[in-house]
Structures are given as structure tokens and as C-alpha cells.
């Protein structure tokens, strides 16, 4: 009996030593030169909590520990991941923008992948039945029209309804320095690319946004949260994403320009979709007489199959070498490009593309969260006056936001 006890203790010590070594190895491989350590990379803070539980992961290609997929890493550390829930672009991040994604079995791990961008946006009671704990680990870029925060709300709602806790492995927001744009205040502008009463850029991490959703009554009942904070981080710090958060944000330049250039979706301007330079260039065929820079959007599987002005030469602005530190210094979305290209466009009546049939709401309005900006651009209102019109709602939101921050501005 004594021999069996000694053998058990020896095996336990070896197992524990291996687990500790694995955690240390993962942590060592992820320490960045800047000192910022993501929640996922701090495995010592949550790995023991996951042990023995059936885990549901909300993850995509941006979910990494070190340089390896969080799902693959946690599986190798002995965590029982029973299913993965994938947002827009899918779990492995290879679906085009807006494309419906089907449920599947992951070829690499054999784990069922439940799409939250297909038949259902929110996990069902049946899908959560064999899950003890949900884990959310997705990189966001801080914009209302970037759909990861929609997925976050649906996950939180499902967890609250089914008495499941949500563990968030927080990550820096590369655009956290800017809280700007008109605040969406009218439900008629809600859409798949905007369901929250925030400005265009909210300046929060996923963990902070989850607290905001809980605190501001977006859910019928609050979701039980456990957040692994980013270490050594504040909102004003520069953070270079280690992996593309989505197929069309394939450079750090695109990530930084995204809040300003994504406004052009819903206009006659192509914002680089259909090229390998998305969200760093702007153009349209009808601007040929105004600009010398040109490019031709084409269908690119896994990025943009049907881009605006597909197979037509576009003329406009090349912002690949634009100094994005100007945006960081101003802490503002750039409106000058929108005003410039509207004024340069020869057929102004067709600059803003139609939205909902039978309503005076353009596709641009749904992205911005109001029709005021479109009407101001058409009327020739100055940038200064446009920005003034965002008050007092913008300042009110900033005061609300401050209640939920985990990191200094």
C-alpha cells in the first residue's frame, strides 16, 4: 500500500512538473519586447481553472498563444475543448467578408466547429449543453462596424440564459487611443454591422466592452464574467498585431486606417477590397480625371469575391505610406478623405449607395449609425462643424465608457 502511495505521488509530481514546464514554455515564447502580454499568453493565470472542465472556445485565426493557435495550444496542454464557435470569416479565418460560414469538423483537431455567422449568430441551448465553461479569445480592432463585438454580445447573452460563465482572454485594442465619430442613438440604424449605442470607435478592449454590455443593460440578465487582463498595457500604447485579425486587414497600416477607410463601404468608392492592399487605398473609375494613382480590384477567394468596381480600373488615393501616427496624435477618425473624394466625385447623386428599400437610409448610414453625416457631407458642412455636431453625445459616451475601463487611457 505504501509502495502504491509513493508511486502515485511520484506520477503526480512528474505530471505537475510537465504541466508547469509547458506553461513556462508558453509564457516564455510570448513575452514581447514591449512588455505587453495578452491574456491568452498568461497561461499560468487560467490553465488550472480550465482543467477538468468541458470547454467551448470562441476563437478564430487571431486566437494564439505565442505563435500557435490557442485551441491547438490548450489541447496540447490537456484541456478538454469540446467545440469551437467561429465568428465572421470562420475559425481558421479563411472566409470572405460577409460570407455565410457553415458548421464543420475541424480537419486538424477533429473538434466540431459551430459557425456564428451562418444559420445562427448565438449559440443555442443544445449547443451549450455539453459545455461547462465558455472561453472568448478573439482580437478586435475597436470599431462598432467590426462584427466581433456583436458576436461577443450574442455569446454573453447565451451564457447568461444557460447559466454558463464566460472567461475572456483579453487582448489590446490597436485603435484604443481613439474614441470618435457620431454616436448611434436611433434603433432604425441598427444592422448586422452595428447594434450598439457607441461612437464609430469605442476605445475599449473586448474585456472592457464585455463589462460595458453587462453594465449598460444590453442583456436581459448579466453574464458571469472572468477576465484575464492584458499585462503591462494602457490604451495609448502602440500595439502591432502578431497576426491578421481578418483577411482584409492584412497589414498594420490597414488596421490603423480601418476606422477611417471602412466608412467608404456604402459609397461609390472602393476601399481596396479585391486587391492585396485593402484599407490602404481608395478609388473609383469615375475619378480618372482627378487622380493619377490607379489599381484594378478583382475577385480574390477568401478575401473579397465581389468587390466594388470589380475588374474596373479605379483612380484615387494611395495611403500605404501615410503616417498613421497623425491619427494617433489627433485621436480622431480622418474625415478629410471622405470630404475630398465626395467633392471630387462627378456624379454626386450616386456617391452614397442605397440601403434599405423604401427608406431614406443609405448603406453608408447603417455603417455610420446615423444619416446626419451623409446629409452634412452633401450640404458641404465643414469638418469643424461636423465634429461639433457629435456633441454632447460623444462626451456622454466617454463618461459612460470610463466606468468599465480596465486600463488607463
TrEMBL record:
GO molecular function: peptidoglycan beta-N-acetylmuramidase activity
Domain of life assignment: Bacteria
Keywords: Signal
Keyword Signal: yes
InterPro entries named in the record: NamZ, NamZ_C, NamZ_N
Residues in Peptidoglycan beta-N-acetylmuramidase NamZ N-terminal domain copies: 55-252
Record's keyword annotation contains Ribonucleoprotein: no
Occurrences of domain Peptidoglycan beta-N-acetylmuramidase NamZ C-terminal (ranges): 256-407
Signal peptide stretch: 1-20
Pfam families, A to Z: NamZ_C, NamZ_N
Protein name: DUF1343 domain-containing protein
Organism of origin: Emticicia agri
Source taxonomy: Bacteria, Pseudomonadati, Bacteroidota, Cytophagia, Cytophagales
